[in-house]
Amino acid sequence: MEMHSQAFLENAREALGDPEKTRRRGLLAAFTPMVRNAAMESFGKFEPLRQHLRRVRQHTLDNLDHYLDRFEQEALSNGNHVHFAMDGEEMNRIVLEICQRHSARRIAKGKSMVTEETGLSRHLQGAGLNVTETDLGEYIIQQAGEPPSHIVGPALHKSAAEVRDLFLARHDLGERELEETSQLVQEARGVLRQRFLEADVGIIGANALVAENGYSMLVTNEGNGDLCANLPPVLIVCTTLERILPRAEDATAMMRLLVRSATGQPHTCYTSFYSGPRREQDTDGPIETHFVLLDDKRTDILASDYREMLQCIRCGACLNHCPIYAAAGGHAYGAVYMGPMGSVLTPLLTSLEESHLLPNACTSCGRCAEVCPSGIPLPDLLRDLRQAEQAAKLSPPRWRTGLKLHAWLARHPRLYHGLTALGIPLLHRLGRRRGSFSKLPLAGGWTSQRDFPAPQRKTFMQAYAGVLKAEKKRRRHD
Amino acid sequence: MTKSARSRIFAKIRHSSRGATAATIREELDSFGKAPAADLPTPDTATAFLANVLKNQGTVDCAANRTDAVRAVGQYLYQHYRTHRLVAGNDSRLAAMPWRDAGVLPRFGTAEGNEPAALSYARLGVAETGAVVTFTGKANPAANNLLAEHHIVLVNCEDLVGDMEEAWLRIRHEVDRDGRPRGINFIAGPSSTADIEGQLVYGAHGPRGWHVILLGYMPASALEDARALAAG
After folding, report:
1. I want to staple B111 with a disulfide (CB 3.0 to 4.6 A). Which of B92, B135, B147, B218 is the partner?
2. CA distance B73 to chain A (A)
């Protein structure tokens, strides 16, 4: 997709200017962590399972050549065609060639972030193919001509009223009631059912690739991915190398955390494993199946200090727990991946020059790392990217000078303590009456949204020294 | 073009790989042990399975024998459609059911676009997740899981397993005997979506009703206990 990460600050400002959307984002930011936390609490084994999966995935990445080779062998012996693509363009070209070889006109597509990354649908449409996104959220934003705002719920930024207007405008179905959400779903079901039945090619993504048997795992609630995988005569699975796991039980163990993290369910309605084309005895299923395995910088990331990012399972929990994502919304990031995982991944997939603002979209609160089912140290990776930004002189000179000054000061503790010992009591005296400041010099942006609390009389170090002194005195008395 | 991508990708991966032998890799993987699974809500597998099916917004019935099972199917169909129309896969176990006892006459084959109800005979039921497992094939075409308005699934008590790891043990056993099926489907609920304002709606693309009939010997209070567990 087109990148607009350079405009993050303007995008975020604009997003915050819409009170209705801000209110709805606030609701989601309260609701989504709640369901996730309830699910993890009743599961009760989040940490041990997260550790187990980290070991398995680390092991898989450490031996990726072994497992990728095994997967390819098994997938081929299951009757698949296996393709490799260095970049998005190559993946798009391979998929288009397959479609054209079958003279395909209609494509039914399941939800896949990888194909969002490569802009596959646009590429196929540009060649005259009729592509229907069949995940309800993806279908809504396809009709609206918008990018996804969330990696799990791509249309959650839209109100039911907006979806109703969209359907009334896009579906030529005459006068009808569309007041209830269930009526909207029902209408989409009717429209899309036909598309499934007519499709010449189905395209899906994969939540995991199983090296031991060559199956791909697909996790959905709607069942749209399964319809794409089973009804059309040709199936193309588009995914990336790092989806590989050694064994089938590793995939379902991962699913335990994936689904709870994403939607708070213990299990999605459909967890499906597909091996290849229909067998001799089968009465349905695709006749020809393809895997297109995309690199798109994954091998670079594998060799870099950001390797842990390849453990991401795209659950969206870090988005749901991120105060910046909640405030600015997914579109502000101007990228396919948003929130904390997106702010790490986007600069790695594009370039730091294009997306250096994103790693700054972080308050270092650490909630993302706390809930990440893969245990990815997202705040650390974001900090490393900011450091790289600083080193590459991409941040504004004012920030760099300020940071340099701060770093210098922090390395001179006496001066630092002396200055804060002067400043803090001054702020305390000035803010004593109200207990907070509504305006502060050099911090106008901060105080425009909230008050700055007046500090205590002493700095922490002063108070700490006082405690130590009192303790010493007490010991002497004992 | 693709071939060169393949060799380039492998070369790059090998560069950052540990280069361990297959035996060492296997050994390390085995050393991680079994992944922690969710605890069952009650020690009895049948009760736990039924409770989780209910939590997944499925409906359930229990049948002591095959005659009871076909009656349960007939009753479900009549309740929802006032009809006894049904499509079922060419599963020898389904063909051998005493359908006449319930006045149901299934059409054995593949579901079409607008079928009211489809019947599957599950290979397994997983208590941990309340999921049923089907294999695609003549005995259960994939369309039968997906296209009907209601999906009815029979599961034998002896085909229940505790968790996903046990499920894979059983699946491997069947695959070793009969070869790899094209698709292995874990189904845990009617098709649903929360893509509009996070509101949960059933019947997104697949069945809007999912009815599981557990067949065989189980504690007399299994269904009652399961309902209490699901409600609590």
Report:
1. B147
2. 22
pLDDT tens digits along A106-115:
999 999 999 9
- Residue A376 has a CB neighbour count (10 Å cut-off) of 23
Selected from 2.40.30.110, 3.90.1300.10, 3.40.50.10420, 3.30.300.30, the CATH number assigned to the domain covering B40-231 reads 3.40.50.10420
> Looking at this protein, which amino acid is placed at residue A89?
E
- What pLDDT score was predicted for residue A194? 94
Closest residue in A to B129 (Cα) is A267
Among partner residues A78, A134, A273, which is closest to B184 by beta-carbon distance?
A: A273
For B11, the closest chain A residue by CA position comes to A65
Residue of B nearest to A194 (CA): B113
Compute how many other C-beta atoms are within 10 angstroms of the C-beta atom of residue A119: 18
Distance CA A335, CA A337 (A): 6
Minimal C-alpha gap between B203 and chain A (Å): 8
Is residue A286 within 8 Å of A80, Cβ to Cβ?
A: no
Q: Which parts of chain B have pLDDT scores under 50?
A: 1-2
Of B180, B188, B195, the CB nearest to A155: B195
Inter-chain touch B187–A163, beta carbons under 8 Å: no
Predicted ipTM > 0.95: yes
Residue A2 has pLDDT above 80, yes or no: no
- Where do the structural domains in chain A lie, given as residue ranges? 45-300, 412-477
Q: Checking phi first, is residue B110 left (phi over 0); if not, alpha (psi -120 to 50) or beta?
A: beta
- Rounded CA separation A244/B16 (Å): 16
Domain boundaries, chain B: 40-231
Query: Which of A43, A160, A275 is opposite residue B196, by nearest beta carbon?
Result: A160
CATH superfamily, domain A45-300, is NagB/RpiA/CoA transferase-like (3.40.50.10420)
